[in-house]
Structures are given as C-alpha cells and as structure tokens.
Write a structure and sequence with these properties.
globular; FxLYD_dom; signal; alpha+beta; MD-2-related lipid-recognition domain-containing protein; 9 strands
Length: about 150
C-alpha cells in the first residue's frame, strides 16, 4: 500500500509540473490607446518579430488594420514605434514613412524597416502610432492610429 501511495504522489506532482509549463508561446497583446492625447486615433493591429522583443536583436513591426475615419496620406504620414522604460523615459524610437496613400475604409499593412534594439529593461511600454502631421503639430488630431502594450508590469 505504501508503494502505491508514493507512486500516486509522484504521478500527481509530475502532472502538476507538466500542466504548469506553457506549451505555446503567446503573442504580445496590444490595447487601444485612444484616450488622453490621442482622441482622434483608431485602434490598429500590431505584430512584431521577434515576439517578445529581445535586447540587441533585430526587430520588424507589422502595422495593419482599417481606419474608418481617417485617410493615411502619402509622403507625409509615418508610423512611429516608441519604447519607454517603466518611468516613461524613451529608450528607442523607430520611424517609417508611409509611401502610399490609403483612403479611410481601405485595409492597410505597413511594415517597418528592420531595426536593431538597444538593451531592453524587464519592464517597458511599447506604443505604435500612425501620424498625419500638421503644422503646427497637434497630437490630439495628428495621431490617427494607435496601439500600446505594457510588458513586465
């Protein structure tokens, strides 16, 4: 009887440990960041490779979706990816100019150029925006697309 109890105990521990190990890597989940300064922005889809980000490695961001209320203007609009530490201090910025105009209601897919990341802290915020700049700049109306995520918090 004692051997059966020990075997059962070891079996239960093994099953618990196996279930605790994730079998698939989860992609970073981005949220809407329309509130506050970006009241004109619409939520955009963002994926990145690699996911999650790795210090001193190359990264490419894929920004896609359909903006219902705003055109993306060519030769003036751009995608900005900003990486901030836990205190909100900028760590890195990536800017990719938009080369083709996209009318509101049309699907778009914009890839950033490959970029080498600096050292990344354990806690950071990643914000991706699409900007139609005006003169003078006005973040409330210039930012037409936005997504953000916080990692390690």
């Amino acid at each position: 009887m004692n051997q059966k109890s020990i075997f059962l105990f070891i079996l239960l521990i093994s099953l618990s440990a196996t279930n605790a190990i994730p079998l698939e890597k989860r992609a970073t989940q981005f949220q809407d960041c329309r509130g506050g300064n970006f009241r004109n922005a619409e939520f955009i889809d963002v994926s990145m490779s690699p996911d999650p980000l790795v210090s001193n490695q190359n990264v490419i961001f894929d920004v896609s979706g359909t903006l219902k209320n705003n055109d993306i203007k060519d030769n003036n609009s751009f995608v900005r990816v900003q990486l901030d530490d836990a205190d909100g201090t900028p760590i890195d910025r990536i800017r990719t100019n938009v080369t083709t105009a996209i009318k509101a209601g049309q699907k778009f897919d914009i890839k950033t150029q490959q970029h080498t990341l600096p050292d990344i802290p354990d806690k950071y915020q990643l914000t991706v925006i699409i900007v139609n700049p005006s003169d003078p700049p006005n973040p409330a109306t210039d930012v037409i697309g936005c997504a953000t995520t916080r990692v390690g918090f």
